[in-house]
Amino acid sequence: MKTIQIRTSERVELIDITSTVQAYVSEKGTLNGIIIIYVPHTTCGITINEHADPDVVRDIKMQLGKLAPENAGYHHYEGNSDSHVKSSLIGASETVIISNSQLLLGTWQGIFLCDFDGPRTRNVHLKIMAD
Question: In the chain, what are the domains?
């Protein structure tokens, strides 16, 4: 397993970590298997979506803001309840197939760390299970 640290710079930010995940697969020399990408934070998530057009990220952030607005009368005392809701909607992990030492992603797909309560330094755990 490898843990990478990602520093975010905004309260709500999606960071493309595809190349970092692929570099780990290449470094390990894994030919075939799966990789689990997991974030151990209750106000973060991991998602796979289009990484070719930055407007997709902008639209995701906008829609999540509508679904869970920052100040909506939540009861959680820390003032970041919207971040917890967004994290639950996105989820804390993704699993990607590795085939011929490459992440088996669609042409436009990328892997994103989603921080909903930044800026912070976040840990992302990568675990490969090989054939």
Answer: 2-70+77-130 (2.60.120.460)
The closest of 55, 65, 34 to 108, measured between CA atoms, is 55
Cα gap 126→32, rounded to integer Å: 15
Here the tokens at position 61 are: 């952030």
| Each residue's pLDDT tens digit, 103-123 | 999 999 999 999 999 999 999
In 17-120, DSSP assigns E strands to 33-38, 44-50, 93-99, 102-103, 109-115
**One-letter amino acid identity for 18?**
T
- Closest to 34 (Cα-Cα) out of 108, 98, 91: 98
Q: 35 forms bridges with which residues in the sheet?
A: 96, 128
Cis peptide, bond prior to residue 69, ω within 30 of zero: no
pTM confidence score: 0.95
pLDDT single digits (tens) 64-93? 999 999 887 888 878 899 999 999 999 999
- Rounding to the nearest 10 degrees, give the CA dihedral for residues 40, 45, 47, 51: -110
The residue count for the chain: 131
